[in-house]
TrEMBL record:
GO terms for biological process: DNA-templated transcription termination; transcription antitermination. Pfam families: NusB (PF01029). GO terms for molecular function: RNA binding. The keyword Transmembrane does not apply. Keywords: RNA-binding, Transcription, Transcription antitermination, Transcription regulation. GO terms for cellular component: cytosol. The keyword Protein transport does not apply. Gene3D superfamilies: NusB-like. The gene is nusB. Belongs to the NusB family. It comes from the Bacteria. This is Transcription antitermination factor NusB.
Amino acid sequence: MQSIYAMHQNDSDNLEKEEKFLFNSIENIRDLYLIMLSALVEIRNSEEKFIEKSSQKHLATPEERNPNKKFINNQVLHLLSESNALSIAMEDCKITNWQNNDDYILLLLEEVKKSELYQKYMHNKVNNFEEDREFIADLFTEVIAPNDKLYEYLEDHKLTWIDDIPVVNTLINKQLRVISPQGKDAFYVPKLYKDSDDKDFVRDLFRKTVLNDVELAKEFIDKTPNWDTERIAELDAIILKMAICEFLKFPSIPVKVTINEYLEIAKEYSTPKSSIFINGILDNLVKDYQASNKLIKTGRGLM
């Protein structure tokens, strides 16, 4: 949707170029995921260096000589730092952001140590896996992910990440809450696409919506007698075209799935009343398509 909208805004007809940008944007989501996840490891490493340096001071205090290492001994952080999957993905994608911007890690570490979560966690020196896991998940969700400075850095680094940040953070939170102590392979880096068909769907939906723009627009313009093309928000028109494209050109996608997905997109990205407007149009179209046998879906339960 965003790529098609960008094409309209830029008045571009270079399908190959825009498709390439679409897939690059998807690839960049993995980089964002790795950057956010590796921040946890780098925060822990930064604290370990600080503790070691403090203990070696000539006039180190008793507390500095015998520090509470519960945070740097956190078992979940150790699993992440030792994860083969994570280290391979970091190397393959050449993720070196925190090596070049360690000031952000120091800033995040400061925020971590000021938090009530950290103070409560560090109340004793004993590590327990369940407590370690809950603490890291909460810390990521409540302290690291919402950090304004981190958000500004990510926004400046890559503008397309603005809409990806909540999705990536939600995924990481879910992973952290179910991670188990199974050694170096306890953590996995999810694939961008479920399978090759998943990636093909991205390409096909993009191409078929763009190449059939006029044809798809005609499908709903007649169903909106009180609205001319100038009065329908451009984003709403794109959402309708994509949904109709799925109705007519993707026989394996259930009608209800299509409607629900695009209503959620409308609620997230368009005007407050858009989802009601779009729902009405799509419902009427489905009835007409069913009556004229234009809606052909294959498989059980696809209507």
